[in-house]
Amino acid sequence: MGHVSDEARALHAEHPAIDLHADSLMWTRWLGYDLLKRHNPPFPKAAFGGHVDVPRMREGGMGAQFFGLVSLPFLSKRARGLARAVDEQIDAMEETIARRPSEIALCKTAADVIAAEKRGAVAALLGIEGAHALEGDLGKLTGFAHRGVRYLGLLHFSSNETGFPAYGRGRQDDQGLTAFGHSVVEKCEELGVLVDLAHVNKRGYMDACALAKKPPIVSHTGVLGAFEHWRNIDDEQLRAIADKGGCVGVIFCPRYLGGDGLEPVVRHMKHIISVVGEDAVALGSDWDGFIVPTNALPDPSHLPELTTAMLDAKIAPSAVGKALRGNVMRVLGS
Ligand SMILES: [Zn+2]
């Protein structure tokens, strides 16, 4: 365990951290990964998964985790069963909660998160990664919202009915959101589902921000101003999110950060703060998402080390509190 300052511990006590993206339920659905047990990552360098669980969330001063709901359209030619894959991950979450409702609670709102924490449970929130899971049907979005889904990522690694990915199958950089994509953004806002612009190409991203009446988010990303990579978003994209009151979760993946350790994570956070101020920065680990996480943050128990590094880098404690929690709570309350 690296260095953790008393001030960092105190900040976590006051602002239990919220992370915007981890794909743990994919592992639960496929391999029966138990979120209630404490795990050691099974692979060298903590690669791929085995990152998030309730005991290590508690050790790391976390209040809430958004769990991504993943479906893989390239596994089936006719893209059937995508919605079902999402439903099965929600089932897995519900089964986990049913086994130990005192430990973990399904939450949708900021008030739900606070209520869960007050009774000593960690908060679980749900977000879909890729609107292909709707199978072209807005009604499916309503169904998912009723099951507790709080954000919808429009794209993943392939084009779908809403638009085109920043990278992957069907990429088309000169195309923005489709007409269906516009309807999906509008329906999300009507249902209180946040629009997540991670993985969306720039045209589609800017279209969605122009259309948005509520704050959009980018659940897990790096920023181009800190490291040049196709996966990262530029300053114009940062401003577009901040203008609508949204926030951007910094990913913990060295490939996109441009280096290992805590310093690159802090560098991306500082870039966001320098471009749009302290109200748009958040955490977006991508734990359990088939990534090799930065060696300093192999699982949530290490988060207070990042907090210490933010403070050491002269980010004001008030801004660190917003990055850990406050900004996401504000967006959840919108
Ligand atoms: Zn992703």
Describe this structure in words.
With 334 residues, this protein is α/β, with parallel strands linked by helices. Helix content is 41%, strand content 14%. It contains 13 helices and nine strands. Helix 6 links the parallel strand 4 and strand 5. Helix 6 runs parallel beside helix 7. The mean pLDDT is 96. The structure holds zinc ion.
Topology:
Layout: H1 6-14, E1 17-22, H2 24-31, H3 54-59, E2 62-70, H4 82-99, E3 104-106, H5 110-118, E4 122-129, H6 138-146, E5 149-153, H7 179-191, E6 194-196, H8 202-211, E7 217-221, H9 235-243, E8 247-250, H10 254-257, H11 262-276, E9 281-283, H12 303-312, H13 317-332
Parallel strand pairs: 1-2, 2-4, 3-4, 4-5, 5-6, 7-8, 8-9
Bound molecules: zinc ion (ZN).
